[in-house]
Amino acid sequence: MSEIDIKTQLDCALQIMTKAQVDNWHTQLEVIQLKCELMDAKRKIQELKGQDNKAPTGFLRLKQVLDVIPVSRATWWRKVQDGTYPAPVKLSDSCTAWRKSDIEALAVSMSKERVSE
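and the corresponding structure tokens:
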């Protein structure tokens, strides 16, 4: 092999290697861009979840209600029947719950009553 052939082969190898490095670099950039987009999407999902937690929607079962309004079950049901506490919602034949917004409003009104006393 002559010196020119070796030089030509080295040039070809260098070009192939450089092209491979450039392709690899582009691939790495694409992966980095995709990771950034994924992180943005995850952040937006977390923000939306945070907004959902602030919304006064949903239902509470009796145990959860009694965690917010610390009275006995008997007292709770007696005051529901006399209209002092909010009426329950039947979600199914065997599932009774209360609107979260109703319980939150009751807790606020109870705390205002205690402050004014």
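(Above: one complete record from the training split.) The chain has two domains: 1-55, 59-116.
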